[in-house]
Specification:
333 residues, alpha+beta, two-stranded antiparallel sheet, binds oxa(dethia)-CoA
Length: 333
């Protein structure tokens, strides 16, 4: 019987490390505040690579680890909130650079839940019989949409990319269950604006601002404490619900890979779920919050470390702007 399996993983982080001390030269903050409130010590910041560059690097690594050739890929999905262009999609640029000439390609926006939405979308294409091999990438250059004068937000984020190859296979790390959620009534908790309407019939002042050189670039804005509460609640709900769906208990789970936003969010979820904190894989101390990339980077890291063993059950759980959330239960192979 064939399943939908993860047959390859990959990730890429820009080389430049920005420490908390580096940030304290830009805004009124300190290493101590950032570490104790978030768990973050440093993050990677792109000094030239675009979102599609990072996506290509992570995608190429995932492809190599899958053993497939670029022409075997039927679909590329790139989850991102920081594309190079409104169009073309980041996925189309990656398709060209990989030489994945048989692949359809599109971008997907689900903010920090992007990797979960991407994997579940890929799974549905494979289950329907339309495609056999799908490359899902989460890639972000969040540094270009950060307000580098706002200490409440600029200290949280970093750049990076993670990727997985999914395939219709009888052997491999299979998806046992998955779920997606959205609560659009909370869309104002976490935002990054695009362009306001402006045309010959509507004057929202954009052209005047451009002429005066005062046009504001889009930037991430958030209600931090509200996002924090949503995040804790949604991680707990997702873990409980996916365990119920799969008729498993928390004792059956070896690892949980949560979206890497804030160590305190993960610790609170761990405490409420009564799941030991060492089952939660964390790397946010080194990379901060890389939005759609975070779960793919963490999964690739866990795979590369050799910690995952055959039959281990792993939950991926994400939350983010929208608000969106979702989870995936895997049995590792
Ligand atoms: O993918 C999802 C993305 N978003 C998130 O994950 C955000 C979730 N929220 C959080 O992680 C936390 O709410 C934050 C880390 C953003 C803030 O932590 P907090 O414990 O909720 O702090 P706060 O907003 O209540 O602020 C406490 C104090 C304030 O000063 P006053 O008003 O008490 O004097 C802030 O101005 O901390 C101040 N503050 C800082 N101080 C030093 C806020 N940011 C900083 C900073 N350095 N970077």
């Amino acid at each position: 019987m064939s399943n939908v399996c993860i047959i390859g993983t990959g990730s890429y982080l820009p080389e430049h490390v920005m420490t908390n001390d580096d940030l304290s030269n830009l805004v009124d903050t300190s290493d101590e505040w950032i570490r104790t409130r978030t768990g973050i010590r440093e993050r990677r910041i792109s000094t030239g690579m675009s979102t599609s560059d990072l996506a290509y690097e992570a995608g190429a690594r995932a492809l190599q680890s899958s053993g497939l050739k670029p022409e075997d890929i039927d679909l590329i999905i790139c989850a991102t909130i920081t594309p190079d262009y409104f169009m073309p999609s980041c996925a189309c640029i990656v398709q060209d650079r990989l030489g994945a000439i048989n692949a359809a390609a599109f971008d997907l926006v689900a903010a920090c839940t992007g990797m979960i939405y991407g994997i579940v979308t890929a799974k549905q294409f494979i289950k329907s019989g339309m495609y056999e091999n799908v490359l899902v990438i989460g890639s972000e250059t969040l540094s270009k949409v950060l307000d580098w004068e706002n200490r409440s937000s600029c200290v949280l984020f970093g750049d990076g990319a993670g990727a997985v190859v999914l395939s219709k296979a009888s052997e491999g790390s299979k998806i046992l269950a998955s779920r997606l959620e959205a609560d659009g009534s909370k869309h104002n908790l976490l935002t990054c604006s695009a362009l306001p309407l402006h045309n010959p019939y509507v004057n929202t002042g954009v052209q005047d601002m451009q002429r005066q050189g005062s046009f504001c670039l889009p930037k991430i804005e958030m209600l931090g404490q509200e996002v924090f509460k949503y995040a804790v609640r949604t991680i707990i709900d997702n873990i409980n619900n996916i365990l119920n769906m799969a008729e498993l208990t928390k004792e059956d789970i070896t690892y949980i890979i949560p979206h890497q936003a804030n160590q305190r969010i993960i610790e609170q979820a761990s405490k409420t779920c009564k799941i030991p904190i060492d089952k939660f894989h964390m790397n946010l101390d080194r990379y901060g919050n890389t939005s759609a990339a975070s779960i793919g980077i963490a999964l690739d890291e866990l795979v590369s470390s050799g910690k995952l063993k055959k039959k281990d059950k792993v939950i991926l759980v994400g939350f983010g702007g929208g608000m969106t959330s979702g989870s995936i239960l895997l049995e590792w192979s």
